[in-house]
Amino acid sequence: MEKHELVIIGAGPAGMSAAIYGRRAGLDVLVLERGVPGGQINSTDEIENYPGISHASGSELGEMLKNHALKFSTEIRRVDSSKVELRGDKKVVITKTGKDENEIEAEAVIVATGAHFRRLGCEGEAEHIGQGVSFCATCDGAFFEGYDVAVVGGGNTAVEEGTYLTKFASKVYIIHRRDEFRADRAAIAQALANPKIEPVYNTIVEKIEGDGMVENLVLKNVRTGETSNLAVSGVFMFVGQEPDVDCVKGLVKAEKGGWIITNDHMETSVEGIFAAGDVRSKYLRQVITAAADGAVAAMAASSYINEQLHLRSTLLEPDEVKAFFYSSIDAEQVKLSNATETFAKAKGVKVPVIDGYRNARMAEKLGLADKMPAIVVIKKGAVGEVIPVKNESEIESALA
Predict the structure, then answer these.
(1) Per the structure, how many domains does the chain have?
(2) Model confidence over 300-325: pLDDT tens digits?
(3) Quick check: is 140 catalytic?
(4) Annotated catalytic residue: which of 45, 100, 122, 136?
């Protein structure tokens, strides 16, 4: 089976940032991507809020991120799908590319799969995707040169992409179910100052009509209940996002909506699996926060991998070892750890001293979380005798 220290699923800003930091930390890194490196930013016309880059298109920034990762000899592999499985203590990533299936064992996995725009779900939407219904203004805007189009949504993406569409469309209606947009003030001011943009507040789209291509929207005013028709040739949906969590769905804890729950170290509920970027539960989903998540996840994964490799070679691989487990937040136990090291050095014996607080997952895995301080006999990776100790004499007796 193919093996790598760190496997990153997703090559957007979070994944590429994780790859750069992972390679700089000396890890063997493999990035898996089902699309184009850069992820969702490839569909953004202009990025002007990433520090240090005053202006760039999303595809340009995506290319820069990819080239930066490649500078450190990162392997980026295109696959059609990825799925993470746990096999005992092992994490295995199963990939499919065409008819080929491959299994990759990883010491740690970073899920950086991002999110996608949610569908509206109204009648006629599915039938007209690719025939006037779009989720990417940058991709499809030019097809509507001189036509009237609608944008559905009221957040930053909807308002900003609506402004972008005025480069091509003769009229852009921004349809929002509330009485004001939720976007940043600057984005709203820019949009409303554009003569081509007309806001349609307190309104939802009930139906999309058209013989082949989109021709008409059936609208409903949420306050009055009144319905009306709006003749447009295209409609762009920006009504929120959903996380791309298929690769770990049901494996890690997630909140309502599927967003992956992590701690500040980007650790998920499963040991050795991290999440970064838009896929996780967080306050702000932007390129800069995704990149920051990726850096944190990579360094946390590096620490985890080094710790696991050390503990494995120290505790689990030898035929037999006596180790001292203690908690570093207990002053008396810290004194006993120092005494253990002094005694072992004086006797010329090797006694691993393991901080069960810092290495809590290993302590829990061995069933020692509530048995510290203790001298533990481990034979071929299995815990044998556990000898509780309270003072230096008991340590000396246990190690004799």
Answers:
(1) 3
(2) 999 999 988 888 899 989 999 999 99
(3) yes
(4) 136
